[in-house]
Amino acid sequence: MDLDALDGIKQQIAASVQSTRTALALGRLGAFGGMTRLPPGLADPVLVLSTDGVGTKLLVALRAGRHDTVGEDLVNHCVNDILVHGARPIGFLDYIAGSHVPAATLTALVAGIARGCRAHEMTLLGGETAELPDLYQPGHYDLAGTIVGVVSEGQALHGDRVRVGDLLVGYASSGLHTNGYALVRRIVFDEQRLGLEDEVDELGGRVGDVLLAVHRSYWQAMAPVLDRLHAAAHITGGGIPGNLVRVLPAGCSAVVRRGAWTVPAVFEFLRRRGRISDQEMARVFNLGIGMIAIAPPEAVEAVQAAAGRAGVATWVIGEIQSGQGVEFA
Amino acid sequence: MDLDALDGIKQQIAASVQSTRTALALGRLGAFGGMTRLPPGLADPVLVLSTDGVGTKLLVALRAGRHDTVGEDLVNHCVNDILVHGARPIGFLDYIAGSHVPAATLTALVAGIARGCRAHEMTLLGGETAELPDLYQPGHYDLAGTIVGVVSEGQALHGDRVRVGDLLVGYASSGLHTNGYALVRRIVFDEQRLGLEDEVDELGGRVGDVLLAVHRSYWQAMAPVLDRLHAAAHITGGGIPGNLVRVLPAGCSAVVRRGAWTVPAVFEFLRRRGRISDQEMARVFNLGIGMIAIAPPEAVEAVQAAAGRAGVATWVIGEIQSGQGVEFA
Fold this sequence. Notes:
Chain A is an alpha+beta fold.
């Protein structure tokens, strides 16, 4: 590549990064570390951080040659991971590594990450791009990221406030989010031999669009009511049972009523075509519920109204009883 | 692997993580995000974050079957990246991904990361481990990490305090640190056909020991005198010229005197055996200087004394003049 083209791409990436800088950001691009102030007026601030990757959804993006959505998947996934602790996102850092990451791919990846950051008024504080040809399969790359957010210590959610009688509010996912793609790829590409451009009625759209639908962020839907919640669980790998159990205190069980919400077509398609048991479906996929809030009955109306204003469907999908673990009723 | 063995390994990893928890840590293992308070009594706290990887030094670790040092490399690299902004490290998160990461490898990686965290009284706040067989070369893994630290806004170093007449204090590196390993591997393994167990007099030791020497952290050496510095530069990829230039304000040049410090044997070996030009050597390697502090002349004695107490050799290697860029004299 000639140097002028490289300069153009560097400028595009720098512009993407620059576009995310909030009033809290400090320091300058190209520094050794990224800097941010804390939001003003926050008593006893606690930092909440999470690192995550996109997993093999990347291989679908590669197959589709569409690299501008996985960055948003990553940011939204990370936002949800700290949102369940009541934290407001303030900064993000990315890690992009591969055998060789073409400049156009890198530009698209960073543009997607920047879009995700801007949607949360969060600064893209830094990142690392590494070309490691002997480590990665030729043409492949990996994408991971770290989020930092902040919450007042008294407002932080740990699960310890959950009590018998609380209700479970399920928030609609946008589809697969970023989990179960090893299984999805096997069923869709290897077994069903579908292409990304195929229109499949049972899926409700084109294969590529359904498989690359962006992981939904629940920030807008939940931020206004975080102080009304007793806990929240981001439904990722492990599904509803594997994640809900992470916020249950001793003596509390969660009873989830199957049928209380609409399971999106893609999951039914995968279950049937892949001949997957209900148990495995529940452990691998979110089944249409990307987030569960645990709230006292008197708060549920407000919790659902806030989600509705953000355009996210919710359902009361169960409740907390005495016992332990998660059971489906 | 049987489940009992897996449980044992999980316990070892959990114990490593647990061993890093400082008094600032909050929340519990297995939560969606890691939590930490800020150090008490810090006026106008600014967060400083950095993400980095270990690069192809990992391939040397793989070749040697020694996975407990690269985690420390990673932590120390990240510590230095925020230390140059005056920040105290408080938390770390790792990302480990590979085709398949054997449990023993994972345990060793996390043990190394935890050792690095403990050495800086920093909590291992979280991380992500991903098995992505279609992305990585079989048997390979990648390791990246993110650090979060904090500094009072008035104490943060950005480079803007640097002025003509300041001196450059160079801190001894422990060797290659984590840069230039593509070139190192080509020269040592492909061209010279050396093995990791070979004793090479010109290197001053066994090939494996020299190549896997842990990236030095300058925390102990610099923390006591951060308020005396005008700037600092971590010497990584890009070498002295590529990194020192990042903290020079307009109108200031840095003049570095070759010969002012002792260049370790490994660099001379690589230059001679690889027939590398001086210019390329300076751009790829640290040449024995892992960190450069820029300080006013009256502070240099205290700066060097603090390093001496931490067991790190230093040299005055140059000065700030009017002009621009970095030049070797």
